[in-house]
Design brief:
Order of helices and strands: HHHH
Helix content: 55-70%
Low-confidence stretches: none
Shape: elongated
Largest sheet: none
Number of strands: 0
Number of helices: 4
Strand content: under 5%
Mean pLDDT: 79
Structural class: mainly alpha
Radius of gyration: 38 Å
Length: 113
């Protein structure tokens, strides 16, 4: 008897289950989205990315060379060296030389158009 009851409950559940008819529109889709990508830019506009990358690489190379130069200035910094007469002037001149080379290097970098 309980198996007949279970079969009837199952049949009622299937018959009474909400079904969508064609008049109700397209089927409902949950948690699904469609993405339409934006159109590509017009072909007539040139990109400045290559010029910007070349400029940035050049500036970074100048900064790296300047850092190496300034690092060489302070290799011999020890208490005995820095307290010697004229040492501060020599270190200052070394840093100024490195900074001047850095600025000259950066002025030679190709500016992006």
């Amino acid at each position: 008897m309980s198996s007949k009851l279970a079969v009837w409950v199952l049949i009622l559940g299937v018959v009474w289950a909400p079904t969508q008819t064609p008049e109700e529109g397209p089927p409902v889709r949950l948690a699904q989205q469609t993405f339409t990508p934006p159109p590509p830019p017009p072909p007539g506009l040139p990109s400045i990315i290559p010029q910007t990358q070349a400029f940035t690489a050049c500036v970074m190379n100048c900064d790296t060379a300047s850092g190496a130069c300034q690092g060489a200035c302070s290799v011999t910094n020890s208490p005995a060296f820095t307290s010697a007469p004229g040492a501060h002037e020599a270190l200052t001149q070394c840093y100024l030389t490195c900074t001047g080379q850095q600025l000259a290097c950066k002025q030679g970098c190709p500016a992006p158009h």
